[in-house]
TrEMBL record, chains A, B:
Residue ranges of every copy of the Aldehyde dehydrogenase domain listed in the record: 13-289
Protein name, as recorded: Gamma-glutamyl phosphate reductase
Biological or metabolic pathway of the protein: Amino-acid biosynthesis; L-proline biosynthesis; L-glutamate 5-semialdehyde from L-glutamate: step 2/2
Gene source species: Candidatus Venteria ishoeyi
Enzyme class: oxidoreductase
Biological processes, Gene Ontology terms: L-proline biosynthetic process
């Protein structure tokens, strides 16, 4: 079987499994999640042995320490995976929810019913826990999944896949509802991205290179996020304490996350007052500061920010700072450089807060809150498959609901159209 | 300027206009729609003169009578266009709606705000009224639009575009919020389909050839519907009167629409009773019947349905009829041949009705109602830009809401993440 035939046969199996998954009951799906969790715990030794193969292959390929750490499956991490599955089991089932049911003048009742998307393809890198996590989200939302992990985690992923299959079958669900590709052939990804007949949506999770490839090659719809170039704008009517707290938190609470602030915009009227206070805290935390000329006049301990800085997601203890004349200038900078992930304003001014909230076109827009809150758990989605910076279908953190769609339902009593 | 440069400059203007449209007030948008309506009526003579150029070009190109009729702009049709704009003005504004606002354990308030998509590209054929209609839907939903009509209607479309521009500018809105392409170069469409930076979604409206081309070439998300192969399944526990009324209405109320039934599935247990009654009515209405062997045994006045028939959207007074053993067989036929547009069951059986509603994976699923109800107006959307048979973003009739997205909003008081 060549790669195309292989992928088509996987696609057909996924399509068939999706029909079964769509009508699986909530209890059945939750019990399957619980069974998978138990299997992962029972198979801890097997998982570690498989992981050991990946780790030693990684070492001999010269992977760096950070990558090897991400790849490692310890008993603690396996327990955390199992706990993640149980948390997903405890979330409300989105499937079958009926909303907006109303009676029309013709006499028919019209409403919307939430339904699974069908088959979801997920392409990801490194961390093997994504295999369990992504499988669980697809399962709970009544979808079938085709998962393609990184080749460096192939043995770990296959061992986890085996636990998923055992759990599914223990509840009478098809093992093919979650298929983890065994081939490491890159052509398999190319095929997956083009199988419109078998795949309803692709979710890439990983570095920018992966996401750009998927986005450019896919003929199937994609839920993705490319960059997280998030901004905080401190207005001249900001509360100083709130502004310092939020701007500090948004940068330093974690450096490597997509909702971390990368550029701080400060209104000219407050810059001389607030920048020295903020700079002191950032420098204590060893954050490198890169500023515009005005910012550097106020805080000389900054290097000069270049055009490239405004367009960079550092994912590191580096912050670019720009002094702007007012909120309109801030919004204009955001329009130009933002990746439409998350932006926040700090202000006590009612009208400006409302304008910022209405006019900034990002997946999350915040008033007086840290950009670090842009996260499925913090928003109450319970779990997230990713954060979308697209506008179609799902925007911002994508939870179970983002893996579903709504169909119209019409209830009648022999109604005909006149 | 070559086509690529031209399209990029149109894209940049649309992007800029979208920023203004997104913050336009409901009153401003409604008054612009009213101004466009008035301008269309005032320019009736100009519109007819432009239309005359298209009609005579069409005649000399040998367009058939049906196409020429669709192309014609009469004073009645111009008045209907103006009335359509006023109806869209009277619909609720979807933009700015805030839902699901709740307070999280962290103290932040999280909700969703409905926002325009940005720039919408619409590619359509023949009927010039689509120019006004599509422009109005985009305008009301706070979007900018790039419209590309058929070359056979170029003069009519440009005359309508002029009215749209006058109306927009009269309310201080940018004329570039609705750009109707003046070029008939096919390469312009190719460019439009690839301009990810400037276009958020493409909506093709027209024949299957157009939609397939758009779907295959687009790198921008597409809201489309390809086929309307709709089914009615008459269960053996159906009420006979309701079954006859609905099955007759679903086929004969209009033949050329996408929500017209193309295949009738009848349970074996009721076929001998109901098929003769139904056939009599269909044959009176001069509907050609094509049946499976079992159906033909009951009603010999049918030709034999081929494999191709089950997969054909006739859009004509032709109906294929299949006798199936039970609802599961009907659902299996639907899974195989349906275009996932609209399917209906006729039954008095509670459990079967619920199963059909849950398990059939189409954009509209109906119980005891005619498929002809699958329509934006009948569903109370007020207007529709099309009917989507995709699952991502919008499914079924797409109204103003389908031209919007939701962003997350977070309201805090200096909240930081711990």
């Amino acid at each position: 079987m060549n790669v195309q035939e292989l992928m088509h046969s996987i696609g057909i199996q996924a399509r068939d499994a999706a029909v079964v998954m769509a009508r699986a009951s909530t209890v059945q799906k939750n019990q399957a999640l619980e069974a998978i969790a138990e299997q992962l715990l029972a198979d801890t030794a097997t998982l570690q042995a498989a992981n050991e193969k990946d780790l030693s292959a990684g070492k001999s390929r010269g992977l760096d320490a950070a990558l090897l750490d991400r790849l490692a499956l310890t008993p603690t991490r396996i327990a955390a995976m199992a706990e993640g599955l149980r948390q997903i089991a405890s979330l409300p089932d989105p499937v079958g929810e009926i909303t907006d049911l109303c009676t029309r003048p013709s006499g028919i009742q019209v409403g919307k019913m939430r339904v699974p998307l069908g088959v979801i393809g997920i392409i990801y890198e490194s961390r093997p826990n994504v295999t369990a996590d992504a499988a669980a989200l697809c399962l709970k939302s009544g979808n079938a999944a085709i998962l393609r992990g990184g080749s460096e985690a192939i043995h770990s992923n296959q061992a986890i896949a085996q636990c998923v299959r055992v759990g599914l079958e223990s509840q009478g669900l098809p093992a093919t509802a979650v298929q983890v590709l065994e081939t490491t052939d890159r052509a398999a990804v190319g095929e997956l991205l083009k199988m419109k007949a078998f795949v309803d949506v692709i979710v890439p999770r990983g570095g920018k290179g992966l996401i750009e490839r998927v986005s450019n090659e896919a003929r199937v719809p994609v839920i993705k996020h490319l960059d997280g170039i998030c901004h905080v704008y401190i207005d001249d009517q900001a509360d100083m304490d709130k502004a310092v707290a939020v701007a500090y938190n948004a940068k330093t609470q974690r450096y490597g996350t997509c909702n971390t602030m990368e550029t701080l915009l400060v209104a000219e009227g407050i810059a001389a007052q607030i920048l020295p206070m903020l700079a002191e805290r950032y420098l204590q935390a060893e954050v490198e500061l890169r500023g515009c000329d005005k910012a550097r006049t106020i805080v000389p301990a900054m290097t000069t920010a270049t055009e490239e800085d405004w367009a960079t997601e550092y994912l590191a203890p580096i912050l670019s700072i720009k002094v702007v004349s007012d909120m309109d200038a801030a919004m204009s900078h955001i329009r130009h450089y933002s990746s439409q992930h998350t932006e926040a304003i700090i202000t006590e001014n009612w009208t400006r807060a409302r304008r910022f909230l209405n006019e900034v076109d990002s997946s999350s827009v915040m008033i007086n809150a840290s950009t670090r809150f842009a996260d499925g758990f913090e928003y109450g989605l319970g779990a997230e498959i990713g954060i979308s910076t697209d506008k179609i279908h799902a925007r911002g953190p994508v939870g179970l609901e983002g893996l579903t769609s709504q169909k119209f339902i019409v209830l009648g009593d022999g109604h005909i159209r006149l």
